[in-house]
Amino acid sequence: MAESLDTFQRIMFYVYAEERIANLENQIANLKEIVVRQNEIIVRELADIKALVNRDQDSKPFLEIFPILNKKALNDFEKNIGSYDEATLISNVQKIISKGGFAKNLHSILGKEIITNYNYDGIQTKEAFKVYTHINNIFYKAVGSEVLTKENYINEIKKGFKVAKNRYYRETFFSKKTKKKLT
Questions:
Q1: Smallest Cα–Cα separation from 101: which of 153, 49, 55, 54?
Q2: What one-character DSSP code corresponds to residue 66?
Q3: Which residues pair with 68 in a beta bridge?
Q4: Is 127 strand, coil or helix?
Q5: What are the CB-based long-range contacts (under 8 Å, 24+) for 118-122?
Q6: Residue 50 DSSP label
Q7: Residue 43, CB half-sphere, CA atoms under 13 Å: how many?
Q8: Would you give per-residue pLDDT tens digits along the chain (183 residues)?
Q9: Is the separation of the CB atoms in 68 and 110 below 8 Å?
Q10: CA distance linking residue 130 with residue 155, whole number of Å
């Protein structure tokens, strides 16, 4: 009798365990359905966001004014900046600096002549870039997410001039060095 009671308890335990397993399998299946539906919603939303971003970027044409190569082009651009759509200019600068940030990509916006003959404050026999208020305003708005204040922007553009000058001087040094090796 004790043995049959023990067997009955084991059978009931296994039946209960099978019911729990079946219940857990149903819960897992329900969760899988929920995850699949959520993924479908997320994919649709991401596609909508991507379409909006692409539409916004495509609506602003890319201007072939960058890099600004020389002082004359810089002065002309500062004078005629009002003839350009500000949002388009900001979008163009943002596209240029999107990989690596403003300081590392200033050389893609301003040419070597400007980089080597200017600094922000106009010290050490260089011309002041800060006098180009309209251009600086466009740059400041373009890097708004990188820098929050005008002071941070000034530090960032100073850093950009330093990085670009170092890059230019390094290129010049290595090109002279390789020319010497070749001769």
A1: 153
A2: -
A3: 110
A4: strand
A5: 118/161, 119/158, 119/161, 120/154, 120/157, 120/158, 120/161, 121/158
A6: H
A7: 6
A8: 556 667 877 887 888 888 899 999 999 999 999 999 998 888 888 887 777 766 655 555 566 788 889 999 999 999 988 888 888 888 888 888 888 888 888 888 899 999 999 989 988 899 999 999 999 999 998 887 666 788 888 888 999 999 988 888 888 887 777 777 776
A9: yes
A10: 12
Q: Are 71 and 114 in contact (CB under 8 A)?
A: yes
Structure tokens at 64: 């072939």
Angstrom distances, CA of residue 172 to CA of 107, 156, 167, 179: 15, 24, 9, 11
Residue 128 main-chain phi, psi, to 5 deg: -85, 125
Q: At what angle do helices 102-109 and 150-182 cross, to 10 degrees?
A: 60
DSSP output for 142-161? HTTTT-SSHHHHHHHHHHHH
| Maximal CA-CA distance, the chain | 108
Does the model's pTM come out above 0.85? no
Quote helix, strand, coil % in the chain, to nearest 5: 75, 5, 20
Phi, psi of 118 (to 5 degrees): -125, 155
CB 107 within 8 A of CB 168: yes
15-36 b/e with 16+ CB inside 10 Å = b?
Answer: eeeeeeeeeeeeeeeeeeeeee
